[in-house]
Design brief:
about 240 residues
Length: about 240
């Protein structure tokens, strides 16, 4: 069943009806504020046109304050407020011909000390969270803990070295001597191995040559003996 007649061209759904109620309430609240800003701006311009410098200056300050409040509460757009203030300043300065130059007053912060402190804490927490995004995850926390422990270990080692410089120097020298001796032994072993291999190869070659010579001598000695013991050709 429809909420309104068929001839109704307005809002029908609950959300649209709520928007209508919200717009009416905002109009009731913001309407007087916008009207007040217009009245004060017009008053400041009229006073400047009549040449009343002091009164025009006070009226300009009141108009600027009302415009800033309207921009803060949302009754007027910030760009609209800036445009109206600029035009008001140009009009007043032109009317007074530099007699009393009006300037826009700085908007006063409309917040209590407690609210300002709360906002400052929120900004600080947001900045810290933005700087430490990597530490919010488990891996980031683990990396942070590891780096922290590494720094602590390095700091403790440095403090110990400063407390006992002789011991640290002796230990460093001992370590250096150990490293030098190990390097020397490794180099000597590396040089000795090829020399031993060459010596063994030379001995093997000499032995082979000696064996070859002995075999040749034996074969040479056995051939003449066989000829002597053989039967002569003419004695049959």
């Amino acid at each position: 069943m429809a909420h309104s007649s068929r001839s109704w061209r307005g809002a029908r759904t609950p959300s649209a009806l709520k928007r209508v109620r919200q717009s009416a309430r905002r109009r009731q609240i913001n309407g007087p504020r916008v009207s007040e800003t217009k009245t004060l701006v017009t008053k400041a311009g009229d006073l400047a046109a009549r040449g009343e410098a002091d009164a025009a200056h006070a009226a300009v300050e009141a108009a600027v304050s009302a415009l800033d409040k309207a921009a803060k509460t949302g009754a007027l757009h910030p760009n609209t407020v800036a445009r109206r203030k600029s035009r008001l300043m140009l009009r007043v300065n032109a009317a007074l011909e530099g007699g009393a130059v009006a300037s826009a007053a700085k908007p006063v912060r409309q917040a209590s000390k407690a609210q300002a402190a709360k906002e400052a804490k929120a900004r600080i927490a947001a900045s810290k969270a933005a700087k430490a995004k990597g530490e919010q995850t488990a891996a980031g926390k683990a990396r942070a803990a590891l780096s922290r422990s590494t720094r602590e270990t390095a700091a403790s080692a440095a403090a110990g070295a400063e407390a006992n410089p002789t011991k640290a120097t002796t230990g460093a020298q001992t370590t250096a001597g150990r490293r030098t001796g190990a390097a020397a032994r490794t180099a000597a072993g590396t040089k000795a191995k090829p020399a031993a291999k060459r010596a063994s190869a030379t001995k093997t070659t000499a032995a082979k040559a000696a064996g070859t010579k002995a075999t040749a001598a034996k074969s040479a000695a056995s051939k003449p003996a066989a000829r002597k013991t053989g039967t002569p050709k003419g004695s049959a």
